[in-house]
Amino acid sequence: MVGPRAWIGGFFSRSSNRKFGSDKYLNYALTPIQEERLQRLQERLGVPFDETRTDHQEALRDLWNAAFPNVKLKGLISEQWKDMGWQGANPSTDFRGCGFVSLENLLYFARTYPVTFNRLLLKQVGSRAEWEYPFAVAGINVSFMLIQMLDLHSEKPRCLPGYNFVKLLEENEEAFDVLYCMAFALMDAQWLAMHASYMEFNEVLQATRTQLERELSLEDIHMVHDLPAHNLLYH
């Protein structure tokens, strides 16, 4: 079931990013690799979804084909998109809340961890609610949450999770995309653990953010695959 368009990013747009009260997270220097990769990531965040661009259209078709390989898509505007959890027949309207990166995130998830992607898309595991979260729109909210949590719209992150994330980005340029997949899987696990229904989605997303902040504050994390939530991608 799908709710109003304000559902996308509505909760986290009213939620301030946590600062950790230390100059360490304000006055640190980026290494050249960190600076280059952070800049490239921030450039990605600034790209709006443009339904007139051929590459954006193809990415959307690729997402459909990854999700439903045996079902022919009738068009980029089709009631079929609701089967994936978009709010209407034209998914491009949902991307206005977060831009092209949220489609890139979903497509990366589908291609890199297809078993987990399909498990979440098709709600294959656990005792599910009668009123489930819409998969695709939930994915956009996960992208939005991560961008805020990591403070990625600042020149450089000014919070502990963001500070540690930049280190992970130096080790793996795909750290943001991998973290997205982990966050989505963690969100679904939280959803099941909380026996949540549609109206509690924001509470589930907040619980997911809190857990990720804890994991990104651990001292022995050197690679994104070291994060405990990474194990969820293989269950």
Number of domains: 1
Number of helices: 8
Largest sheet: none
Strand residue content: under 5%
Terminal CA distance reads: 26 Å
Strand element count: 0
The proportion of residues forming helix, as a percent range, comes to 40-55%
Structural class: mainly alpha
Shape estimate: globular
Uncertain spans: 1-21
Mean residue pLDDT: 88
Elements, N to C (H/E): HHHHHHHH
Radius of gyration: 17 Å
InterPro entries: ELMO_dom (IPR006816), ELMO_domain-containing (IPR050868)
Domain ELMO: 55-216
Protein name: ELMO domain-containing protein A isoform X2
Pfam family, one: ELMO_CED12
Please give the structural blueprint:
Elements: H1 32-45, H2 54-67, H3 100-112, H4 114-121, H5 135-149, H6 160-171, H7 175-193, H8 201-215
Helix pairs in contact: 1-6, 2-3, 3-4, 3-5, 3-7, 5-7, 7-8
